[in-house]
Amino acid sequence: MKFKSPPVNSLSLEFLTEFSIGLEKLENNRACRGVIITSAVPKIFSSGLDITEMCGKSVEHYGEFWRAVQEMWLRLYGSNMVTVAAVNGSSPAGGCLIALSCDYRIMAENPKFSIGLNEAQLGIVAPFWFKDTFVNVVGHRIAERSLQLGSLHPAPEAQRLGLVDELVPEEKLMEKAAAVMAQWLALPDHARQLTKTMMRKAVLDRLVAHREEDIKNFITFVSKESIQKSLRMYMEMLKKRKS
Ligand SMILES: CCCC/C=C/CC(=O)SCCNC(=O)CCNC(=O)[C@H](O)C(C)(C)COP(=O)(O)OP(=O)(O)OC[C@H]1O[C@@H](n2cnc3c(N)ncnc32)[C@H](O)[C@@H]1OP(=O)(O)O
Membrane-spanning regions, if any (predicted)? Predict the structure, then answer.
């Protein structure tokens, strides 16, 4: 799957819905045993959740948007397929969550590309299931420090921390992703799938059990004037940085 929503593959409601439907179709296709996720937008894997979806909208919209974020994660993290992220650009916040939700992450070895859960930098808090997914990849201590600081790790540091599994030259990224996919697909699906479920079930079940509460929390949090102000200021900062 190639993300192609210029300029920065931000995860809008429409993008998330299309991504989830795409994953569902592949999941239901018995001929498809694995998916490599990458980007067709140069230098950007995904800029994370579309901030404009969380600014100045109705309570109903926030609820619909958050449900779509949850749905995407439940499908990807809970997928029976082998999932490989070929991270060919920067990948903050929700973009990082997509990579973390895959079975294996390969990143282009460009130190200008960074990845991480930087929510704290926006004055917002990564929800528990973003945190759980992060902890399951890098461990508690690294996740704790990185989340509190809202760190975006340049590719070499991301590899050192175990946030990505390996770095390769950008031109070799897809070749490497295909080789990793072949290695994972060489195992019988049944054993691999049951093992994956065993490793991820507790974290998935936690969101399923608290899904409506999580939506309510998001709506309450994002509707606060202080949070709206932080998000607006962050968007302005992005625009100023550009000019
Ligand atoms: C409340 C509960 C928890 C909610 C959880 C949220 C998780 C999230 O995912 S929040 C989103 C976090 N994302 C970011 O912090 C990334 C912000 N973007 C960037 O750092 C940079 O844009 C980039 C490194 C991804 C790319 O840099 P580049 O110089 O190539 O492009 P820009 O000129 O900065 O951006 C182009 C264009 O796109 C707009 N934009 C960028 N990111 C977002 C975004 N996440 N949502 C909406 N719009 C975004 C940016 O403002 C520019 O717009 P204009 O062309 O109109 O100026």
Answer: none
Active site includes 116?
no
Place of tokens 């299931």: 129
Identify the DSSP state of 93: T
Structural tokens at position 1? 């799957």
One-letter amino acid identity for 56?
Answer: G
pLDDT for the residue 94? 98
Q: How do beta strands 89-92 and 43-44 pair?
A: parallel
Strand partners, 34: 82
Determine which residue's CA is closest to atom 57 belonging to ligand 1. 239
Q: What is the pLDDT of residues 117-163, one digit of tens each?
A: 999 999 999 999 999 999 999 999 999 999 999 999 999 999 999 99
Catalytic residue among 11, 23, 26, 49: 49
Rounded to two decimals, the ipTM of the complex is: 0.98
Write down all domains in the chain, each with its CATH number in brackets.
2-172+183-242 (3.90.226.10)
The radius of gyration of the chain's CA atoms, rounded to the nearest angstrom, is: 17
Q: At residue 242, does pLDDT exceed 80?
A: no
- The alpha carbon of 235 and the centre of ligand 1 are apart by a number of angstroms equal to 7
Active-site residue, from 76, 119, 152, 207: 119
Please give the structure tokens belonging to residue 113.
Answer: 């590309």
